[in-house]
TrEMBL record:
One GO MF term: ATP binding
Spans annotated as Disordered: 81-115
InterPro entries: FtsK/SpoIIIE/SftA, FtsK_dom, P-loop_NTPase
UniProt protein name: FtsK/SpoIIIE family protein
All residue ranges annotated as the FtsK domain in the record: 369-574
Pfam families: FtsK_SpoIIIE (PF01580)
Species this protein is from: Micromonospora yangpuensis
Keywords in alphabetical order: ATP-binding, Nucleotide-binding
Length: 892
């Protein structure tokens, strides 16, 4: 048992020992594992301890990187924003107040936004804080700081004024609390109507008015064609309406109607240039409203929350007042003239229009920017232009002529122009000494014709003749109108004729034959000219001129096109007083005989200054047809020259002309610069008497007569006997004597009886002398004493009478100057003596009454009022009435 126990014990011990050993081994292993684990842990801990430091450094590095990038980007964006702002708001829209001055944008260019301060963005270049107003929207100001908005409102307004043309912005102030004090600096604008104040209680009316303006602009100016004035301006280059900026600075709460109107203005005003700058009045939400909330430390613009901005200081008060004063003065001085080029077609379209049915050209622009056209044709056929002196009639005529001449070629249109007032501005249409160009359409320019109403008559006679020619041609082709005549006669030249007579009342003044005939001719031309393409344009500054027409309603009725310049009276119909309120350089154009419903107001461009005209004239002149001749210039103040007279140049001495010789006495007042011609055939009475005391004119008439006769005779084939009995006439007579050289003989007081005796004796001989003999007697009446004594069988005077009586049939003609009609009658045999041997005379300073009884048909003598360097020529064999002549000047 004991063994078994011992065995058991041993076995147990053995087992225990094994277990212990195994346990120890496991323990050791566990220990080792623990140690290794601990070591790992320490390592991991150590490693773990190092991690946050690295990550933080990385994060910080990244953050720093981002920060720098962001700063650079913000700086870049700020720079770009500043640059864009400079472009959007150049010049006056953003310049600092020191050195600030207006810099208007062009008419087609929008004025852009304006600066009120600087955006707060730290660390960048300053970025201007811009607020859009004109053509862009409305501004609403609010906030605690009154001083702040006292800076914003003047800045907005002054900058807006500075970005637009003078007069293009109208301000309406409503400041019931300070009664305009908020806009005090702008007060000078009131003088030019650019600022109006609406008193307390006037807000409703003010808003109604703005709504009405918007309605009118939409209806008549934009007229469905443009979406806004800004679009219209961009498309046409014109801004026909001003911007209207209403500045509303507080007041009572709005009633329902006012709120409704304010809403309408906010919604629809911008397109029509109607804007609001408002404080203390709520504005509805709308994208066009920019809100500025002003606090003590700056403002927030736009939003909410909006951009933080530092506001600019207000513009210095003297700058505001001075700018406004200058603007008002500029506006009061009137608008800058519209350019003449507005009326002209593009160069490639010049002379492309056809005048078969009429002549149409623009004369200016209407308020809506569209051109106002003038038409002359079957209807309306003729025009009346009226306006007091200085209102622009001459300019309007220039503008109209230019607009027409640029459209129609000289084959389509001809002008005849007559200016009865003093001045030479129309002379530039003709060729001049300094400027060789002329207007190719111009056929005749008459200037300084105020004392030569006969020239007006000559023009009307010429037109009447042309009317007859056209009517005959129309009849021949069995048509009635110019358009039809041109269709059936395509090879013919049938331009429309426009005859312009400035100050035409001069032509109709008085009750003499000239006025009567002129009125008759005018009436006929006005009535029948319409269908033959002859159009009359009559201009007058003087209501009396129009009254001359008023007596002839049939004549007036033909002038259906009326053009009234500012303050013109009686050009328009009786109750149509549109001309009374016209601004400078505008005209009422009315093709309805002046009835109010036909009124169109046009702004007339400046066309009368030399430069604007000259460019066009030179262009058209270069386009002229190769055979174009310059216009005839009749200058009443100029003295014509014999050597330049077409009739003188046409005279020949080659024996080919079998007609009787002619003496040219002066230029007649007509359209073609013809000469007064005295034919000297072998017929009784073919002598000439020059009557009056004016030495120079008398010498000029005899000189031209002798020189023109000499030109028809080869040397040695005519005799000229010159007797001069007035020392004052001596130089002229001597010059003539020398000119005629071998064909001339000289006589004086002593020798003149010999001339009479010898010539009279010659007439007694049989046969006709082989050469003509012309006796040129200067101041022959001074020889009465010498001639009274016997010279041969008779007295010298008797011989003179015989020569006068018998000479012409024997080729002996007397061309003599008597210094008075009575003296001539004495020389002819006494007051009752016959005068039929004086077949022709030129009266100088002799009253018409003195020329009655036997010198002139009828009783009382001709209608003749002497005037310098003019004579009245009457040839009883050809004339019914006298003809005014301008003696040729002394040869140079
Ligand atoms: N549309 C215009 N734009 C700019 N200037 C103008 C315009 N019309 C006229 N003027 C200027 O006004 C002045 C007077 O004009 P104009 O000579 O045409 O007047 P008028 O009525 O013919 O005067 P008058 O009968 O005394 O000759 C001129 O200096 C002219 O250049």
């Amino acid at each position: 048992m004991a063994d078994r126990r011992a065995q058991l014990v041993t076995r147990v011990r053995g087992m225990l020992s094994d277990a212990l050993g195994a346990t120890r081994a496991r323990l050791a292993a566990a220990d080792a594992e623990l140690t290794a684990g601990q070591q790992r842990l320490t390592k991991v801990r150590r490693a773990a301890d190092a991690v946050p430091e690295r990550v933080g450094a990385e994060r910080d590095r990244r953050l720093a990187q981002l920060d720098t990038g962001q700063q650079a980007r913000i700086a870049d964006l700020a720079e770009r924003a500043a640059e864009a702002a400079r472009r959007e708001a150049p010049g006056a829209a953003s310049a600092d107040w020191s050195g600030w001055q207006p810099t208007p944008s062009g008419p087609a260019e929008p004025p852009g936004a304006v600066r009120v301060g600087t955006l707060r963005i730290p660390g960048t270049v300053p970025v201007p804080a811009l607020v859009p107003l004109l053509d862009a929207g409305h501004v609403h100001l609010s906030g605690a700081d009154l001083a702040g908005d006292e800076a914003v409102v003047p800045a907005l307004l002054l900058r807006s004024l500075g970005r637009t043309d003078p007069g293009a912005v109208r301000l309406i102030g409503y400041d019931p609390e300070h009664l305009g004090g908020g806009l005090a600096g702008f007060a000078p604008l009131t003088a030019a109507g650019l600022l109006t104040f609406v008193g307390p209680g006037g807000l409703g009316r003010l808003l109604d008015d703005l709504v009405e303006q918007i309605r009118r602009i939409n209806e008549t100016v934009l007229a469905g064609e443009y979406g806004s004035l800004r679009e219209l301006a961009a498309a046409t280059g014109r801004r026909p309406e001003p911007w209207r900026v209403a500045v509303l600075l507080g007041g009572d709460e709005l009633n329902r109607h006012e709120r409704g109107q304010l809403d309408r203005v906010v919604r629809t005003g911008t397109a029509c240039g109607v804007h609001l700058v408002v404080r203390g009045v709520p504005l509805p939400e709308h994208p066009t409203v920019t809100r500025i909330v002003i606090g003590r430390d700056g403002a927030r613009i736009g939003g909410p929350p909006g951009l933080a901005a530092r506001l600019d200081p207000p513009p210095p008060a003297p700058l505001v007042t001075e700018t406004c004063r200058t603007l008002a003065a500029t506006v009061n001085a009137g608008p800058a003239p519209a350019p003449f080029a507005e009326l002209l077609p593009p160069v490639e379209q010049m002379w492309q229009d056809d005048s078969a049915t009429g002549l149409t050209a623009p004369i200016g622009s209407a308020a809506n920017g569209r051109q106002v056209q003038l038409t002359l044709g079957d209807y309306p056929p003729h025009a009346l232009i009226g306006g007091p002196s200085g209102t622009g009639k001459t300019n309007l005529i220039f503008a109209w002529i230019g607009a027409l001449a640029a459209r129609y070629s000289p084959d389509q249109l001809e002008f005849y122009l007559l200016d009865f007032k003093e001045g030479v501005s129309f002379a530039r249409f003709a060729q001049g000494r300094r400027d060789p160009s002329w207007l190719p359409h111009m056929r005749l320019v008459g200037i300084n014709v105020n004392t030569d109403r006969e020239f007006g008559l000559a023009l009307l006679r010429f037109l009447a003749e042309e009317l007859r020619r056209r009517a005959d041609a129309a009849k021949k082709h069995e048509v009635t109108k110019l358009a039809e005549l041109r269709a059936v006669d395509p090879g013919g030249r049938w331009p429309r004729i426009v005859a312009v007579v400035d100050e035409f009342q001069m032509l109709l003044a008085g009750r003499d034959v000239v006025a009567r005939e002129a009125a008759d001719l005018l009436e006929d031309l006005a009535r029948r000219g319409r269908s033959q393409g002859i159009h009359l344009v009559l201009a007058s500054q003087d209501v009396r001129g129009i009254e001359a027409l008023w007596g002839r309603p049939a004549l007036v009725a033909q002038f259906t096109l009326r053009i009234a310049l500012p303050k013109a009276l009686r050009i328009l119909a009786e109750r149509n007083d549109a001309a009374q309120s016209l601004p400078r350089h505008h005209a009422v154009v009315n093709a309805e005989s002046g009835m109010a419903e036909g009124n169109q107001v046009a702004r007339i461009p400046s066309a009368s200054d030399w430069e604007s005209w000259s460019e066009l004239q030179h262009r058209l002149w270069r386009m002229r047809p190769p055979d174009a001749a310059p216009a005839r210039l009749f200058d009443g103040d100029a003295i014509p020259r014999l050597a330049e007279a077409p009739d003188f140049r046409a005279l020949r001495a080659d024996g080919t002309d079998r007609r009787a010789p002619v003496a040219l006495l002066g230029e007649i007042i007509d359209v073609q610069a013809r000469s007064a011609v005295l034919r000297l055939p072998r017929a009784p009475g073919r002598n000439l008497a020059v009557l009056g005391t004016r030495v120079d004119e008398a010498c000029a008439v005899l000189d031209a007569a002798a020189r023109s006769l000499a030109r028809q005779h080869a040397p040695g084939t005519a005799r000229f006997s010159i007797a001069c009995l007035d020392p004052d006439a001596d130089p002229a007579a001597r010059a003539l004597y020398e000119e005629l050289a071998d064909d001339a003989a000289w006589y004086d007081e002593e020798t003149v009886p010999e001339l009479m005796a010898e010539t009279a004796e010659g007439l007694g001989r049989a046969g006709t002398p082989s050469v003509p003999h012309y006796l040129l007697l200067f101041a022959v009446d001074a020889a009465a004493g010498q001639l009274a004594g016997p010279a041969g069988r008779r007295s010298g005077l008797e011989q003179l009478r015989r020569i006068l009586h018998d000479g012409p049939e024997r080729r002996t003609h007397v061309l003599a100057w008597w210094r008075g009609v009575a003296r001539m009658r004495v020389d002819l045999g006494g007051p009752a003596a016959r005068t039929d041997q004086i077949g022709a005379w030129v009266a100088l300073d002799v009253q018409g009454g003195e020329l009655s009884s036997s010198l002139y048909p009828g009783t009382g003598g001709p209608d003749w009022y002497p005037r310098p360097w003019r004579g009245l020529f009457f040839d009883r064999s050809v004339h019914r009435t006298g003809q005014v002549v301008i003696p040729y000047g002394p040869a140079r």
